[in-house]
Model the fold of this input.
Amino acid sequence: MFRLAEERNVLCNSVDDPEYCRFSFGSVVPRGDLTIAISTNGIAPALAVRLRERFEREIGEEYQRFLAMLGDLRAEVTRYVPDFSARRELWYRLVDSEALTLLRRGKEQEARALLRRLTDEANFVPSRNVE
Done:
């Protein structure tokens, strides 16, 4: 089968037989627009699986909600904070804030309020709330 695939320029994946494997699949943890990909380049697929399982446990749906909140702010932050350094600093303050912890605790309104406060402190006056 491998020889036939090679003759026809068709990719062949025999993950349990590396000599006859032309590509591999990494493990993926999807969380909405956040995608975490893990690959060991075929050296230790079991390690990739264990890492995926760990990330699935540790990176919950709150990351998806947090990313959506940040996405709602993106255009306005770009518009109202034109200086790249100031904008980068603001993004790190937002990402490093306690918003994720609040989301994990089910306190979505408090997380939104925190993001609004941090943006206000950066002289950013949003034209709408974080939705």
Remarks:
- The chain has two domains: 2-58, 61-121.
- Residues 61-80 form the longest helix (20 residues).
